[in-house]
Amino acid sequence: MRHHLEQTKEQQERIRERIKALGGRELGMEPTYEKGELPIPEPPKQLKMMIESTSSEKEREVWESLNDLIIERAEAIMYKGGIQALELLKADKKTVKALERNLKEEESFGNWLEKNNPRIAKRLMTMQIEEKKKYGKKKKVIKDEKEAISTTVTAST
Hints:
Layout: H1 2-21, H2 45-54, H3 57-88, H4 93-156
């Protein structure tokens, strides 16, 4: 994940460089991103609210992992569209090459996520089950201790 974050930053920088090289700043075509980041697609608000309100922390992590895959696939689609448009316009080959490199990286990470999401989900859900068992045992111990104290107090009075 850390490696992909670095790749994403490099991808953004490649795009910024190409926009600048093509005169984007002078033409008023400066990218519309905030805090140095490009926009990221998100699931519909109602689905996101439902997931956040009804899911455990581990279940939300599984959803996030699936959302990451959706984002990677969406980014790949956007790069393909950009490449096709530039090729149709017979535009700058350096920009096409930059987008092709970004596309390759996005597809590679998307493939990794698709392959590993079931394993990630299984690991997170196993951790959740183990935490519930552990919490359940702690709760029983506390209840048993309270009953023992109550019985001791009652017996001594």
